[in-house]
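Troubleshooting: if your tokenizer reports a length mismatch, compare your output against this known-good record of 354 residues.
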Amino acid sequence: MRPPMTRTFNFSAGPAGLPTQVLQQAQAELLDWQGLGCSVMEISHRDRRVVAMFEAAEAKVRALLSVPEDHAVLFLQGGATAMFDLIPANLAPRRIHVLNTGAWSEKAIAAAEKVAQVQVTGQAPYTQVPDLPEIGDVDYFHYCHNETIHGVRVAEAPDLSVPVVCDASSSVFSEAIDWSRHDLVYAGAQKNLGPSGVTLVIGRRSLFSDSASVSPVFDFSKQAKAGSMVNTPPVYGVYLIDKVLDWIDASGGVQAMQRRAVQRSDALYQAIDQSSFYTNPVQAECRSRMNIPFLLADSALDQAFVSQAESRGLMFLKGHRSVGGMRASLYNAIQDGAVEALIDYMREFEAQHA
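Known-good structure output:
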């Protein structure tokens, strides 16, 4: 049995763990925010203090990611899944090129095909990033930086002459973004940034259209002009994001997050590669730093692996239903010692069952 503890090691792929410090701060302010005697959830989003919080969160996003001034920073709703439809609706493309590296790329392709001609590079099995052909006359190029299900990461953004759109839902704030190679980046908050319910969109304003055929709630141009407050926004989600951004900054910023991500993922991949009991199918240069899927030599042991892991406080290691096996998600807020504890457990389990 695992020893008593207040917090388990959370390997969930999302919604994912939040920094303990952030949760403690939110707990302390739950009934009394800024001396108002009520929660931030209970007051108008038009209140000057809530508006100031949104403005502060935007400023922190800009500072931590070095966002150019000609890019808008939006806090929207709907998640990345909604963005698969909403980005084409806002950008009104005729032709799109999509790099297909996994399940989330597939969803982006399916949505884009409703409104535009879509060229696709890449197909299953997803174990590498395919080489791009020459990108022709398209309105934009779309790719997913990190595939949570298949564990594939695009190590270097393509340098193209067309606008580049990136789904960074599972990697945002874990490494720097090269804005010379990106025109629009979007991310669901529930991996590295906050709770589910908020979608971060950072995009070059010149891409946005004032005549987009979409609800004002999801109109990038209108939301940019309204400070993400065309309608009642997800106030509590942005409140938590604001605190997570403070935590990232105090922890050394995005560079520190990247350094830790490399160290954690390298240690776990090394343990997998040195084992004859565990395997990861992704080519080394394309492996995710955030989501590490792995298979046991005998899939009949999968349930036992998960159950025994949970008894030791190693939570949510079951792989996605479409690929099976295990998956350890190592987002920014994963606690110190989590990977070491997982590796120790994996070695013990292997010794018992190999």
